[in-house]
């Protein structure tokens, strides 16, 4: 097997086959709420700015407040799930997220909305950090686990583009308040179903003592780090004194955290977890692929809006093929690919497809045609993501002990979140700088803008290509991946 086979959390013995799949759907519903929220809000930002009177600079805090709390607390939330019970943390996070969504929808001032978004980020971190760990304990059998992780990967990776469509519909049909109010019935139902369908796990307990200094250090490091990326680095540049000072503070906090974890009797993050090449490599790949993919979805949306003239709803529809392909591959075929070839080879193949798609995007012209210049790119990204991400998530958990599953899941989430924020800041900054230099050289406005996007697409391709190198050199085939016999291969092909 390529994942853990038992846990003191929910076990297959505790839940029947049908109940386990119902529990998976509940977990993915919670994840979908979190993922949708990010892109739904992005689409509604102009309407929020007009209604509440945000300036262009202050408007960024509607997104940044969420990202800082979410990225800063993911790792701590994952470990709390191991210690206090993952269902407890999952349900608690949903309650916080849903209540904060109500506050966001009711907000009539900038201060209330930003504060509520921070609380939303706390709830989002608690909810999402423990999901992957719960899935691998619910589905220890390799074939079922691959299928379950494929379904989860689809929700985690493709849900963002669904949010573009949903955000456009809700904002244009009603108003921006409803992008938050829609979370209320979903959150209430998901909490009720989680309590009913997900077996309560005991957790390791905190009797041996809690690593409070370690928790404070890593949470502070991640929050300061994410803040540095989304605020001074994005606005002032990476060489600005404030950016450098905060970067040094982040590095100092991280060093102190590592020293603390190496000496603590009951560390928050046992450093032994990084002895796994697959876990370490998977986290590096997660950070790099998130840097490339998230930045391109954001900048690709800007290309469609500012260069091709698409509105919010048209942008959502434009990205729909990516969502459909990710869903089809993740839910229907990822399990078969993993069982036939093991998780490593599909992961590498998916990353290569993403690199090819990003390289192709660098050729999109000012007067681009969707079917010629955009759809092929989104098709390759959808194929690559649908093949790569389920295999990556399964491989990341291959050597993880049951008691560390929540921590490992939170670590993957943290790397994805930090990678996405870093990638967006770097790509957006370089794109804007390139656009300004082209405009200064006398290029027409749209041509200069497109040139800036081309540079960001090329750099994103290089970033994901680095992930391919890591996958080929550092990652190893899952130690216990099933060897599929010829009869099983025929059965899979006929399925």
Automatic annotation (TrEMBL):
Record GO terms (molecular function): transmembrane transporter activity
Subcellular locations according to the entry: Cell membrane
Domain Major facilitator superfamily (MFS) profile: 23-479
Coiled-coil stretches noted in the UniProt entry, renumbered to this chain: none
Family matches, as PROSITE patterns: MFS
Pfam families in the record: MFS_1
Membrane topology: Multi-pass membrane protein
Sorted UniProt keywords: Cell membrane, Membrane, Transmembrane, Transmembrane helix, Transport
InterPro entries: EmrB-like (IPR004638), MFS (IPR011701), MFS_dom (IPR020846), MFS_trans_sf (IPR036259)
Any one GO CC term of the record: plasma membrane
Main location: membrane
Segments traversing the membrane: 21-47, 59-77, 89-108, 114-139, 151-170, 176-198, 210-230, 242-260, 281-303, 315-334, 346-364, 370-395, 407-432, 452-474
The protein's name in its UniProt record: DHA2 family efflux MFS transporter permease subunit
Organism: Kribbella qitaiheensis
